[in-house]
Amino acid sequence: MTTILFEERVVFDFLKGANEGSAQRVNFIVQRMQGLDQSRKIEVKHAILEKYPDFVFLGEEENSTEMVTSGLLVTQARYQEKQLELDRIMNVEIPENSKEIGAALSLGDLRENSEFKAAKEKQGILNTTMMRLTEEISRAVIVTQSMVDATKVSFGTEVVLKNNLNGKEDIYRIFGPWESNPAENTISYLAPFGAKLLNHTPGERFTFEINETKYDYTVVSISGLLV
Predict the structure, then answer these.
(1) What gap in Å lies between CA 162 and CA 170, rounded to an integer?
(2) CATH 1.10.287.180 spans which residues of the chain?
(3) CA distances from 88 to 4, 94, 125 (A)
(4) In the chain, pLDDT over 70 holds for what percent of residues?
(5) Residue 83 Cα distances to 89, 107, 137, angstroms
(6) Which DSSP category does 168 fall into?
(7) What is the pLDDT of residue 64?
């Protein structure tokens, strides 16, 4: 993994398009990579500072707790799926792509080499996906059944809401971005709508507005979903 991240400059390509939050988490990962040469760690910090001159590095010494709070809540099943996806990209798709690039290079004149251009575009997509998955997996917090708090709307719960605007009942399942499927009313707790539902309790009435759309709900019931 170190070879891919540094010798092929993947981590630096990723940082070029990263926002400050993503850069913070990439640095957090790199600084804790065992066996990584200190010069590489310094190089990453320099790359971040080139883009964000006033950047403050968190996750070190007394500030380490600030990184913990940025954890991504996930289910065990989705965590395993993402690990398998990352493994496939790193150990199957990227090596295959490298062979494709090598084969395209052997064809000569790169200016008219569509195979080379396609392979390089694919390389960029694979590298970006690998970095994103590495970052997300590094801050994933697996939520088990015993951790679900069904006394309030929270990750791993199903909530039945009375829509006070039309008298109907709406049912939502609250998970994270990895599990989210709005078409089936499975909502991410990080999405604007999901965030507005969090922490409300049975019998509670609450209102909010998103993008000029008004909502008026009363919590009918809450149940835990994880088994």
Answers:
(1) 6
(2) 71-142
(3) 14, 9, 14
(4) 89
(5) 10, 36, 7
(6) -
(7) 39
For residue 137, the SS3 value is: helix
Residues 6+ apart with CB under 8 A from 112: none
Give the integer Cα–Cα distance in Å for 45 and 40.
9
Q: What pairs with residue 45 in β-bridges? A: none
How far is it, in rounded angstroms, from Cα 5 to Cα 35?
14
pTM here? 0.70
b (16+ CB within 10 A) / e for 75-90: beebbeebeeebeebb
Encoding tokens for residue 42?
């310094």
Give SS3 for 151. Answer: coil
Q: Are strands 157-163 and 213-224 parallel, antiparallel or unpaired?
A: antiparallel
Kindly state the tokens that stand for 113. 């080499």
145-224: what CATH class? alpha beta
> Domain 71-142 adopts which CATH fold?
Helix Hairpins (1.10.287)
Q: What percent of the chain has pLDDT over 90?
A: 47
Q: Enumerate the CATH 3.10.50.30 domain ranges in the chain, comma separated.
A: 145-224
Q: Tell me, what amino acid is at 197?
A: L
| Model confidence at 65: pLDDT above 60 | no
With beta carbons less than 8 A apart as the criterion, state whether 191 and 181 touch: no
Q: How far apart are CA 91 and CA 87, in angstroms?
A: 6
Both tokens assigned to 109: 């004149």
Q: Are 49 and 55 in contact (CB under 8 A)?
A: yes
